Amino acid sequence: MNKINKYLSVASVVMALSAISWAATTYQGNPIQPVDVVSGSVSVSGTVSVTGSTVNIQGTVPISAASLPLASGAATSGKQDIEISTLAAINGKLPASLGAKISNESLSVTLASNQGPIDVQGTVTANLTGSTIAVTGLSGGPVSVAYPVVSAPVVSTKSVTTASITLLAPNATRKGFEIDADCSNNKSVAIIFGAGPAVFASGKQLTPCSSFQPPAGVTVTSAIQVIADSGNQGVRVVEYP
């Protein structure tokens, strides 16, 4: 009896070990294939599902996608039609090349209300009308420019003797003058500035065929007297009022 129990115990152990071995090599009735642990790269074909928020990938992974989702409001080529149309309209108004152009090929420019002086190169036509100058040849049409009205020069001739005479009367608006001594007579004359009579020895003397005008920047508005040293001498005077 003891031997039977001994054999039954051994048989039970063998059956239990067989059951454990079967369970370790199968899953749900399917045999489990052995897995070899290798180092380096492992090629995987098919679809691999990845769960979790972080996946560590080393090296370069090629990705092929026909389309990718875009964020809401993202720009695409199909949404640039307005920009393309606007740029084309601007380009159509620009000259084809740089450099000076004729009027119908130039861009119009509107100057600021506080624009300072602008240098103009080329030919500008100015027509005097009253107290303004009508300037043409500029983009935008004629431009009126105010200018001071200047009277025409006044030319007169005096016959001067040894008696002092007034050559020019006082003129507060006089801009300038020029005095020319005649060449026909070999006589000198002298001029003085002011109301008093001229004295030849103390005046500004002019020999025949000579002239006098104030230095640049000097304006004389007083009366001018003249006298000859002897005989008779013609004097021509030009006043710029």
Query: What would the average pLDDT be, to the nearest integer?
Result: 77
Helix content: 10-25%
Low-confidence stretches: none
Report on the biggest sheet: 4 strands, antiparallel
- Which structural class should the secondary elements be placed in? alpha+beta
How much strand?
15-25%
Shape: rod-shaped
One letter per element, helices H and strands E, the order comes to HEEHEEEEEEEEEEE
Q: Going across the biggest sheet, name each strand in turn.
A: 6-13-8-11
Terminal Cα separation, in Å? 164 Å
Number of helical runs? 2
Return Rg in Å.
Answer: 57 Å
Q: Strand tally, please? A: 13
Short characterization:
15% of the residues lie in helices and 24% in strands. The chain contains 2 helices and 13 strands. The mean pLDDT is 77.
